[in-house]
Amino acid sequence: MKILFSKLFISLSFVLLLTACATLKNNNTSKPIVIEASIDLVNINDDKVQITIAPTAIQGEEILFYLPQIVPGTYEYSNFGRFVEDLKAFDKKGNPLTVTTVDENSWKIASAKKLGKIIYWVNDTFDGPGGEKIYPMGGTNFDSDKTHLLNLHSMIGYFDNIKESPYRLSVRSPKNLQAFTSLPAISKSDSLDIFNAERYFHIIDNPIMYSEPNAVSFDLDDIKVGLAIYSPSGTHKAVDYQAAIQEMMIAQKKFLGKSNNTSSYDILLHLMGMEDLQYFGGMMGALEHHTSTTVVFVDAMQPGELTQSLVDVVSHEFFHTLTPLNVHSEEIHNFEYNTPLMSKHLWMYEGATEYFANLFQINQGLIDAPDFYGRMNEKVNYGQRYDDSMSFTEMSAGIVDEPYAANYGNVYQKGALINMCLDILIREKSGGEKGILWVMKKLAERYGKEKPFKDENLIDEIVALTYPEVRDFFTTHVEGTTPINYNEYLSKVGIIEGKTESQLPGVIFTDASTPIFTPQDIEEKGRFLVITGLNSTLEAMGVQLGDIFIGLDGQMFPEISQENGAAINAIFSPSFMWDAETEFSITVERNGGSLTLSGNVGTPSAVISGIVEDPTASEATVGLREAWLFN
Ligand SMILES: [Zn+2]
User: Fold this and answer.
1) What distance in Å separates the CA atoms of residue 408 and residue 169, rounded to the nearest whole number?
2) How far does residue 316's CA lie from ligand 1's centre (Å)?
3) pTM recorded for the entire structure
4) How many domains does the chain have?
5) Of 317, 333, 366, which marks where a domain is finished?
6) If you measure from the C-alpha of residue 559 to the centroid of ligand 1, how many angstroms do you get, rounded to a whole number?
7) In a shared domain, residues 554 and 491
8) What residue numbers bound the domain in which 536 lies?
9) pLDDT, tens digit, 9 for 90 and up, residues 446-498
């Protein structure tokens, strides 16, 4: 999974600023059971969808029926059972059977031998009860004849001990909408699609998006790639993003080499409206699956912005085909949806994935070295928001509960940096020849999709493949609680602290997270936003330090007060969606007169403290750096 927060979310900190200044297991059953599941997207009632589950033959006097408490890739309790309403069971003649609610996610059905079908209604997570706590990329959205995002783990349940039985899934849909999914179809028509899932895991590993046709499909060597987009405004067309996805996936395949054998990959991009983004607190992102990914961004993003976000996020998801999908422990292989055991190795599942999603971009020439260093430096800075002395393996094993859960976001920061340090260390010891990607490829050869490793043996196996110093690193910084001195590792490849020109997240920033203004009281006039920082775009437009910032793109700020925080943020909000081509204006007061300055957003940058190449580095050090970035 990859979580991103909309820059709109960063804008919330402006309000704070204003305030601060004012004061899985197998089972065997004798007879093969087939579970017929059906979803009716046509007769939606009060934003709820009716589900029917009909198993062929159940043994025993009673049986438990579940919806998952947690699903792979999310690392938090979701309790999907809470979206279920009015669950009823019937025998084969249609007579009701006794159903007892056991807990939020499970129901006990009496006289199980006679069970004909279970019928229930499900709410969607995009506006269902407590749905804002579900990651939107792992959620469901039912929107009549516009779109249906189906993450089936919140709709379709499973029976105790028969998770391994095949499912036949029928979906009745509005005629204007088409299904987009990596789940194999048995038959398709404009109003009824029938899919086949080998076992319950395949039900949840293959989300489905229904929308009006807006998809492209193309072959890259030996992989078939599909991209489907639901855009509420209709502005984003799949065909416009094909080139960027193509370039990215070719680069990823080259980076991974033979170790990738994914034969098809589908990208389901569900763009949400502004109210949905607000509902989820600014959260966007993607969730990984074996042959697809669901991606949720906001429709208001400009094409340039959306393209870069897609490249960063989809590449992360595609690298999950390496780990955990092809290198994972028994805890993940035999995932228990209602009594989960977590693996200790999030440093690898999310950390290595996130590191590769950045490293491949410089390795394959999609970004330049300063951009890559900037990304790593940002991870060092963002990582400081979390507990730096929490054992990473301990955190991983306990991730669904506090105090670990609050530190989950660090898997994308420190988790990636752990891999960067290991990469540098292994490069150093192997004279530049091997790195962490080599280790991962070795593990993928040894294990793979169907063969899990033993959680407690993984680090020993990695050490056996590499060097004793790698053991020390794990003991001290991954299992242990000693924070990493990143400069120590970066200096091995001739990278030091220094001033660097850095691209900014938006036109109103002066570094990665600081706005260009500070609220200040001006005597006898009141509180104003004063320009206290600049960037390349604003400098070129003629904005000066000390100008009073009174309006943005034609909208004037109300009085600067805590009560007006939301109104002020609403003026900033559109700027987070602008791309390089967007024209805008800024209105300032200078020497008693007001001045409106206009220009293009361009690529705002500023000179900030970061990490740079050491010009005095030795030839050997530079050689090691080249090996690290480009081998
Ligand atoms: Zn991930």
Assistant:
1) 34
2) 6
3) 0.89
4) 3
5) 317
6) 42
7) no
8) 505-603
9) 999 889 999 999 999 999 999 999 999 999 999 999 999 999 999 999 999 99
